[in-house]
Amino acid sequence: MFRLDSEAIMSRKLPTLIGIPALALLLYIPGCGGGGPHVLQSIDVSPNTAAGSTASYSATGNYSGSPMTVTPQPVSWYIMGPGIDPPPSGYTLAVAPYTGQRCAQFQAKTTEKYIVIAVAPVNPSAPNSGSVPTQVFDDLVIARTTTSEDGWVSATATLTCP
Known about the structure:
Order of helices and strands: HEEEEEEEEEHEE
CATH class of the largest domain: Mainly Beta
Shape: globular
CATH architecture of the largest domain: Sandwich
Structural class: alpha+beta
Number of domains: 2
Radius of gyration: 25 Å
Largest sheet: 5 strands, mixed
């Protein structure tokens, strides 16, 4: 009888002994309940360098969880360089590639370089358009002193107009 009782006790403990570590493992694995929010961590712009008025850029988002990458990543595109006034500090997300149109506007005999900038909020559920805090916009787009700040990420590429 003692043996029967210990077998009954062991049959109840075994699932508990296996279940607790299994549950802890599932909660530890990102995307299975304990990995934190799924957020955009960085953006890659491709190509990194291009030339001419037909240059086209696309963005890939790198996320903290599955799916790890998204192409095309919805971003707001900006261009900075000679003869361009700074843009206002707002955003409108687009999934379409960005086509560099500055070269067609110049008949110059000198080479002009422009910076193409992709910006997006880290929250994938953010609205498709809105405002960006002024300091964040200045740091990511105007001065390009960082690629991540206060809920926003950015990446750059170069456009050369021959």
